[in-house]
Amino acid sequence: MSAGFADGLPLRDRGRVRAWDLPTRLFKWLLVLLVFTAWLTQQGGDPWIRVHIVNGYAVLVLLAFRLLWGMFGSSTARFSAWVTWPWDAASYGFGLIRGRARPYLGHNPLGGWMIIALLCLVGAQAVTGLFTVDDNGIYGGPFSNLDFGDPTPLQSRFSRWHHGAFGLILAFVAVHVAVNLFYQFVKKDPVVRAMITGDKPVEPFADQPEMRPGRHLALRASLCLAAALAIVLGGVRLAGGSL
Ligand code: HEM
User: Fold this and answer.
1) For residue 9, how many C-alpha atoms fall within 13 Å in the half-sphere facing its CB?
2) pLDDT in tens, 140-187
3) Which atom belonging to ligand 1 lies closest to the Cα atom of 66?
4) Of the candidates 4, 28, 101, 137, which lies 20 to 30 Å from 46 by C-alpha distance?
5) HSE, side-chain direction, 13 A CA sphere, residue 92
6) What's the pLDDT tens digit per position in 187-220?
């Protein structure tokens, strides 16, 4: 996979650098699609709940992939590049207010925390779905019929979260979208375009001058995807759930 060529000319010769690898961009937009279809399919009643459940497994596989890609992906995808201490995020935020924040090639320190929040919220929504049963008690996740023998069973607590907490995801997504549109159109930092095309205009970035893909990117991505499938589907089977 080419990390820096397009139209026959190296990106740098056109004043641009690679910011995001293809797997990260595919992950991001597939996640948007699957969150939307998860919402859509839970509206449609019983037959659609089966699609909703498959959709939920796909979200889990995607998130497991992103966890692995955070360790084995290219330089901007790795957690080490964008998971920062809260005080670094705060200091970046103060810089932003004073108009002194430096541009970042990857996620900036504040954006990194928003992404952790989004990943955790979507992850919690998908995991709690494994314990949830539909309103008619016909279709459910693989652990929805387990009884943990607690006065307030884990299953019903998770089920309540799964039914009630989607609004929280929507609130975070609304902030995430608004902030990214602010960067794109007010600060003229083309973050949305970069998440689509993968590249950005060259700037004195605070984090790294350009993305380093590392060796055999496509092979590493395929292995991470295979491992993500095994972790999710194998994990459910090992824990006693039926797919
Ligand atoms: C269901 C809705 C959405 C969810 C769950 C979501 C989630 C995420 C996640 C997890 C990432 C991190 C990508 C990674 O490093 O792997 C991300 C990044 C990003 N998203 Fe979204 N997103 C949503 C909608 C949108 C929309 C509609 C836009 C367009 C306005 C958008 C623009 C971006 C941009 C520009 C980035 C990169 C931010 C940066 O450079 O720091 N997202 N999103």
Assistant:
1) 8
2) 888 887 665 553 567 778 888 998 889 999 999 999 999 999 999 999
3) 16
4) 28
5) 19
6) 999 999 999 999 999 999 999 999 999 999 999 9
